[in-house]
Design a protein that fits this description.
The protein has helices spanning 108-127, 139-144, 148-162, 164-174, 191-198, 208-216, 220-231, 259-272; strands at 15-16, 32-33, 88-90, 98-104, 131-137, 237-238, 240-243, 246-247. Residues 1-30 and 35-70 have low confidence and may be disordered. The strands form 2 sheets. Strands 1-3-5-4-7-8 form a 6-stranded mixed β-sheet. Strands 2-6 form a two-stranded antiparallel sheet. With 273 residues, it is α/β, with parallel strands linked by helices.
């Protein structure tokens, strides 16, 4: 699989920093390429990109196939905003910079990025270095079949409804080496599996509302709207990481794969500004 990185402008977001209602408690060299996009996506045959990192083409399409949203009423999680609630921004409102992350929860390279860089991003959010805007794709649902990308996003929406901390912690658990499935496996399509992973997050362990939302697919329509927003963004692959609208690159010319690479790229960009 190859890395396909493209840029997209993100506007009209609402920054959420509070924890909301009380809950009571692959390799990184590969990337998932999605629908055809602007410059910086794959080659003409979908097998490579301009920086020579190689790749696997994705097919254009509508929102993912997961979940049972169907004609169900759209319910947006707390701490979301924008059209259909698909804007998720976490960090201080006064932060002078915005980091945009484009990910597919089923994507192994996205999991590798989360494992290598996620803790540094969490620290930077806490320090107010930047706020983070999250964007989610369902490329593997389309390319390989299944519904894990979309179903996991629905569960992540249920965590977001609990608090922003629960969202970040659950996302980290889903993409951890312990729980993230192989690319060929669609483990995230199983609600029981998603609920098992949620036991890693203190705020979700005994949260009945969260568990019911996962079981009932409360946020399935929202997840499909979020995937549709990604498809319309012009970004063609995951993971894609941008700071203030421009891609961040690691030493290999692709996305940073370590915290050190990431911090160096961020610091250089902020210094240049």
């Amino acid at each position: 699989m190859a890395v396909a990185v493209a840029a997209a402008a993100v506007a009209g977001v609402l920054v959420i920093t509070d924890d909301g209602k009380d809950s009571g408690a692959g390799s990184a060299a590969d990337a998932v390429q999605g629908p055809s996009g602007p410059a910086g996506s794959g080659g003409p045959d979908g097998s490579g990109d301009p920086d020579g990192s190689g790749g696997s083409a994705g097919s254009a399409g509508s929102a993912g196939s997961g979940g049972s949203g169907g004609s169900r009423k759209l319910v947006t999680p707390a701490h979301s905003s924008g059209p259909d609630g698909t804007t998720v921004v976490i960090g201080e409102a006064g932060a002078g910079h915005t980091l945009d992350l484009y990910e597919d929860l089923r994507c192994p390279p996205c999991a590798a990025f989360e494992q290598g860089v996620g803790p540094a991003i969490a620290e930077d959010i806490e320090d107010g270095t930047y706020k983070v805007s999250f964007h989610f794709a369902a490329i593997l649902d389309k390319n390989l079949g299944g519904s894990g990308s979309t179903n996991a996003l629905s569960a992540l929406g249920a965590a977001l409804d609990v608090s922003t901390d629960a969202f970040l912690d659950y996302k980290a658990a889903l993409m951890s080496a312990k729980h993230h499935p192989q690319e060929s496996e669609d483990s995230f399509s199983d609600d029981d599996y998603l609920l098992t992973v949620s036991q890693e997050v203190h705020a979700l362990r005994t949260n009945a509302s969260f568990r019911a939302a996962v079981r009932e697919g409360t946020y399935d329509p929202w997840a499909k709207k979020a995937v549709a927003a990604f498809d319309a963004s012009g970004v063609s692959g995951t993971p894609t990481v941008e700071l203030d609208g421009s891609p961040l690159r690691g030493s290999g010319g692709s996305f940073p794969v370590t915290a050190a690479e990431f911090r160096e790229a961020v610091n250089q960009r902020i210094k240049d500004d």
